[in-house]
Specification:
It contains 4 helices and no strands.
Length: about 100
């Protein structure tokens, strides 16, 4: 039995960076696809079109309470997606633009 055991590790930093970058790019595509899908729901699409009409834009009291709540939930969801998209975009920027350490 050996009295000591030594472990040697090697990490291919370029390959690891590539894998993480690919995963982040897939994540970004999924976020964008999900945002589009959330906006294309039939009930919500009709409601968004109604909100953009001039009479409703001037007087939101024309919307019912459930419609206002649905719009508020959708806006909150879109804000969360935008924050997520910004964070992933920042990580992609860092991995693409910063040089790897060649130490």
């Amino acid at each position: 039995m050996p009295s000591r055991t030594s472990y040697f590790w090697y990490v291919d930093l370029a390959r690891a960076t590539k894998v993480v970058l690919e995963t982040l790019l897939k994540t970004m595509a999924n976020i964008m696809e999900r945002k589009a899908a959330e906006s294309e729901m039939p009930v919500l699409k009709t409601l968004l079109e109604a909100r953009n009409r001039t009479d409703v834009a001037e007087d939101e009291s024309l919307l019912t309470i459930p419609e206002k709540q649905l719009l508020q939930r959708w806006e909150e969801k879109m804000m969360k997606f935008n924050v997520l998209e910004t964070r992933v975009d920042e990580a992609i920027f860092i991995l693409r633009e910063l040089p790897l350490l060649d130490a």
